[in-house]
Design goal:
Elements: E1 4-9, H1 17-27, E2 32-35, H2 53-71, E3 78-89, E4 95-106, E5 110-116, H3 128-131, E6 140-143, E7 146-152, H4 166-176, E8 181-188, H5 196-211, E9 215-219, E10 221-224, E11 227-230, E12 234-237, E13 240-244, E14 251-256, E15 284-285, E16 292-293, H6 298-319, E17 323-328, H7 332-344, E18 350-355, H8 363-376, E19 380-382, H9 386-399, H10 407-428, E20 431-434, H11 438-443, E21 456-457, H12 464-477, H13 484-488, H14 508-521, H15 525-530, H16 535-546, H17 549-553
Parallel strand pairs: 1-2, 2-3, 7-8, 8-9, 17-18, 17-20, 18-19, 20-21
Antiparallel strand pairs: 1-14, 3-4, 4-5, 6-7, 9-12, 10-11, 12-13, 15-16
Helix pairs in contact: 6-7, 6-12, 7-12, 9-10
């Protein structure tokens, strides 16, 4: 038969049942098979929301309403596959079983569950085994005379961490039943990560070649606190990408099987990068001594920029903010944050930059902050802290006998700025945007309740060297928005005279790959030294990392753009013996 498939890359707030119902009714009007993402009916991730009785009652009422609507429709030549939940609930108790399923919606018939997700990820940000019961059966679905194999998200990824490979089991089952598959359909809720798109494509290509039919992938869109879902739904027809939807936007796309022209003579190659483990493949160039951090391509920089803009807007809009507030320092991090905020602005939104120099701030910092705001067409508020700093310093000298110098003197400057930022936020209703980067977070190179303040961290998953990469990318594509003087300056907190970051830290070119080894690949001292790093620097960095957990535990949400990030998927005890890593 000549079936048309409609891919619906949807964007809804978690548990927006009224909005999801309205969208479903609106979209299900065209002949063909309509495909929606994993857990389309609820949103994802739900965490403990999925256990709350108020949520369960509301969801089950919604599903009954959708089922009733479909049953009362006249018979038509369309069908729909949607992601949702099934509950096995006893009266007045927590549910005994919750399943992540694919429902069929059929006009004149209603809804029925067809397939239960088999692989439940339980790593990093995922904890599905805490909530869901896995499925144990393959699902082959017939529509309009065609047979489709069904999967949910993780089911497409082979891995040594899983006891079974759903793709292999599905292929064996299809061959045993002598089924001719029209396509494999995967409904997904797959988070965005830099450089992940091509890995999805490669895995889908190999599955398509293995089965000898197209692979159809439908992903959700949304920013859920730290986690970003990019959409980027696609159809892989053998070795040919037949359809790709845009990233970070709700979108619809259709295709007819007669339009496909993929070649299936190529033998699938299941390399490591095409497995689940490949999603976490090292970003460290191990051939270089010492090892270096691999740089992003221009395309990957563009994806990261789009993801950060999208994540910022999602967080602001869902939190009810239309104004943004950024503290400028004349340095790289705050400049990049302000540029990203400016590039992300929607109609009716605004951003204010506030520059709070101390007695240690260089004249160049003032000049560069003014030039940046001129380039971005953003008002700059000049608010020196030297008199406040002096007042606090004198008050402490009159009250306490301990010296007010060194780190004490440095941190009070940073905390004064944090106080002023939030006072201004109270005045205007603006959301304060944090300006710390991942390198600083890893080694505690920030002041608690000072420069670490903010409602959301835009750069918290970017190492300092990546901050420069992304800044250069913006300048190449947006007419030098960020003054080159900022990019070429030596990094400094300017909390004491002639201060530079590398007075306290190794150069970022060496620090960042060390941190990637520690954070993403669980390397210890021995492994880092084997990568060519200096033992003294390794010891110092590990000490800084270990002693900074208490700061990270109180840090704001971080927009996640990598496989391993601080925040939601990073769970390390604060209280522990610090010698285990040395």
């Amino acid at each position: 038969m000549n079936t048309t498939l409609h891919l619906h890359q949807t964007h809804h707030t978690l548990a927006d049942f009224e909005g999801i119902f309205a969208s479903t009714v609106e979209l299900l009007k065209t002949d063909g098979l309509h495909l929606f993402p994993e857990l389309y009916l609820t949103g994802y991730p739900l965490q403990d929301l999925v256990l709350q009785r108020a949520f369960i009652d509301k969801y089950l009422t919604f599903v009954n309403k959708l089922d009733h609507w479909a049953k009362n429709l006249p018979k038509a030549s369309w069908g729909a596959l949607v992601g949702g939940l099934t509950y096995d609930v006893e009266a007045d108790s927590l549910p005994k079983k919750i399943k992540n399923v694919i429902f069929e919606i059929a006009p004149g018939v209603g809804m029925r569950a067809l397939y239960t997700k088999r692989l439940l990820p339980n790593y990093d940000i995922f904890d599905e085994q805490k909530y869901f019961t896995p499925g144990s059966e393959n699902a082959f679905y017939e529509f309009n005379g065609d047979t489709f194999a069904l999967q949910i998200c993780e089911d497409m990824w082979a891995s040594s961490f899983h006891e079974l490979d759903p793709c292999k089991l599905m292929l064996e089952d299809a061959q045993k039943k002598n089924l001719k598959l029209k396509a494999i359909i995967n409904l997904s809720a797959s988070p965005f990560e830099a450089a992940k798109k091509n890995k999805r494509f490669e895995r889908a290509k190999n599955i398509s070649l293995l089965f000898g039919c197209p692979f159809v992938y439908v992903n959700r869109v949304g920013g859920e606190d730290e986690i970003l879902f990019d959409g980027t739904s696609f159809v892989m027809d053998g070795n040919h990408l037949a359809l790709e939807l845009v990233s970070f936007k709700a979108a619809n796309g259709s295709f007819n099987f007669q339009e496909l022209k993929g070649q299936y003579s190529e033998t699938p190659i299941f390399r490591e990068e095409n497995t689940w483990e490949g999603l976490f493949s090292p970003r460290i160039d191990l051939k270089s001594k010492p090892a270096v951090l691999k740089t992003w391509t221009q395309s990957e920089c563009a994806d990261v920029l789009a993801g950060l803009q999208f994540g910022l807007q999602e967080y602001a809009q869902k939190s009810g903010f239309k104004k943004f507030l950024v503290a400028l320092s004349g340095g790289m991090d705050s400049a990049l944050v302000l540029a990203i905020v400016k590039l992300s602005l929607k109609p009716g939104q605004s951003v204010e930059a506030i520059y709070m120099p101390s007695i240690h701030s260089a004249t160049l910092s003032t000049e560069l902050s003014e030039l940046l705001c001129k380039n971005l067409n953003i008002p700059l508020t000049y608010f020196p802290i030297k008199f406040l700093h002096s007042t606090v310093k004198n008050a402490f000298k009159q009250t306490f006998t301990e010296p007010f110098e060194g780190l004490v003197d440095e941190n009070v400057q940073s905390r004064l700025r944090g106080m002023l930022l939030y006072t201004r936020s109270n005045q205007t209703g603006a959301m304060v945007i944090n300006t710390s980067n991942k390198s600083e977070l890893a080694v505690g190179y920030s002041t608690q309740y000072g420069d670490s303040v903010g409602a959301i961290s835009v750069l918290g998953d970017l190492y300092k060297t990546e901050v420069y990469q992304l800044s250069n990318h913006i300048n190449q594509h947006f007419n030098d928005l960020i003054p080159v003087g900022i990019i070429h300056r030596g990094p400094s907190a300017e909390l004491r005279d002639n201060q530079l970051d590398q007075d306290s830290l190794p150069p970022y070119e060496r620090l960042d790959p060390m941190l990637e080894g520690i954070l993403s690949y669980q390397m210890g001292k021995k492994q880092l030294i084997n990568l060519g790093f200096i033992e003294e620097e390794v010891t110092r960095v590990l000490n800084l990392y270990l002693k900074s957990e208490y700061k990270r535990s109180q840090f704001c949400p971080i927009l996640k753009i990598k496989a391993k990030s601080f925040g939601f998927g990073y769970r390390i005890p604060i209280s522990k013996n610090l010698n285990y890593h040395l």
